[in-house]
Amino acid sequence: MEKRNRYRNRIHWLTISRLALGAILLLATGVGFVLVRNQHVIQGDEIRVAEEQIADFDQEIELWELRIAAVRDRQELSRRLRWVQSDLKEVDTKRVIEMAPVSAEDVPVASAY
Predict the structure, then answer these.
(1) Does residue 12 come out as left (phi exceeding 0), alpha (psi in the -120 to 50 range) or beta?
(2) How many CB atoms lie under 10 A from the CB of residue 80?
């Protein structure tokens, strides 16, 4: 003869639904954590790429500043002009005329009145 009520402490549908709800909440929390962590990693990668670009631009700016400083030097400029075989001639300093700046009082002012 078989016993119909083999288990006296049956699991009711309310207990099953509570366990299922707990599992769903735990799963949702895990998925949310993974998504937030992945977003942090993606943003960190974007920040790293931006910092590398800034470093490259800084290097390029320094290179251009050095090139400009080299060209502003008279001797370096004449050396570069000879190197590229320019048709420009050197300026004779004896023939350079220096002009004094004009004061603001001597300049005529146009009036609209």
Answers:
(1) beta
(2) 13
Q: What is the sign of the dihedral through the CA atoms of 15, 20, 21 and 23?
A: positive
The shares of helix, strand and coil residues in the chain, as percent rounded to the nearest 5, are: 65, 0, 35
- How many other β-carbons are positioned within 10 Å of the β-carbon of residue 70? 13
**Closest of 80, 55, 58 to residue 69, by C-alpha:** 80
Residue 46 amino acid letter: E
**Cα 47 from Cα 55, distance rounded (Å):** 12
pLDDT digits (tens, 9 = 90+) for 26-79: 999 999 999 999 999 999 999 999 999 999 999 999 999 988 887 777 777 778
Hey, what are 21's tokens?
């709800």
Query: From CA 32, how far away is CA 40, in angstroms rounded?
Result: 12
